[in-house]
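Forwarding these from the shared drive since the link keeps breaking.
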Amino acid sequence: MHTLMGCFCLKKLGHKPGYEAPINLASETPFTVNEVEALYDLFKKLSSSIIDDGLIHKEEFQLALFKNSNKQNLFADRIFDLFDIKHNGVIEFGEFVRSLSVFHPNAPEADKIAFLFRLYDLRQTSCIEAEELKEMVTALLCENNMSLSEDVVDLIVEKTMMEADTKRDGKIDDEEWKEFVKKNPSIIKIMTLSDLKELTLAFPSFVMNSGVSDLQQPVKN
């Protein structure tokens, strides 16, 4: 009965399946209600760029990043996989907001460190091996239109493994990663997007038409 009512309400409000109320998402993330509403505007554009079904497919995700839905990039694939929390091949609005929240300036540093660890853990073995590190470094260089010789990349990987792999077992586990980042805080700079704090400035119409005032929002802990 609740499911039927939920579907009826979504249709009545013009929202597609997978939509979650901004006030609920704001209570779980560093975003304000206005910012979540702004993100919904962005989400609607991304999720209708190829298939208008209220979900972001990998091709739409790649199109947003590269202006090309067919371009293959390991970095983009990993980000998509981490955003796809339900592992069903698409990104729903709630997943989009919760995943983006880790990049918010006010998100806990521990969440940023954990997300970055999972990004590098390509084989999902709860540890980062040298080959995985090399693959991600190469992908990140490609993403930023930078090119380094393989010898230089190997040197970066070797130096990182030497410093981070304190147990000398050929891999970096979760605890070693935390210690490594603590000594090299600049590593997680890519995990903070300052623009996320200014979403309401980018989408002023949502600020003016917000159904819930920021003063009425749940208090963040």
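-- next protein --
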Amino acid sequence: MKNQTKYKHIIWDWNGTLINDAWLFVELMNQELETRNLPLISVSDYRAKFTFPVKRYYENLGFNFEKENFEKVGLAFINKFKKRNKEPDLYENTYEVLNKIHSLGINQSIVSAQENNLLNETVRFYKLNSFFKNVAGIGHYYADDKISLAKDIRKKISCDNKEILVIGDSVHDYEVAKSLSVDCVLFSNGHYAKKRLLKCNCDIIDNHLELLDYLS
């Protein structure tokens, strides 16, 4: 099918955008909070409080990094996550939408704050790797430097800025799009509550099928 949209390349976020995993982040974080006698959180709390850099999110939950090391805390969390990261489901219609975009001849990539090897392993597990030209995560487990990573991937994409669309679920994904001077659409049922996304100057969708309106 011929691509009649202006977009020639879509850059996806992963966690909370293609895969419905906020609940798992909450379960694992509550284990860490409980051992420190800190208040537990719900998914709603998480979507209201999660932020980048991740260290700030931990501090907002009550972690004291004058008394313990952030890198050690973060690595302990990731080790638990790696044991369960294949439990979440893809969002409803994820495969359908990726396949439709592929059929239109639009290239796709993933740029994620997840560690690169873990990200690629997970994308292969869900049998989505054939849809993507690039699957790029960061070089460590501390979920920062996504903008630099996105700029590196941008160099591999031979399109004008106006032909690239970033799709994510956080204010940081909007910041990534702004840093690339490309369009952005944010998904409201991921890791950020919708009211937090409304301050971003971009369109917001509640369902992945709504993306097809941008490509018709």
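The chain has nine helices and eight strands. The chain has two domains: 9-20+89-215, 22-84.

- D.
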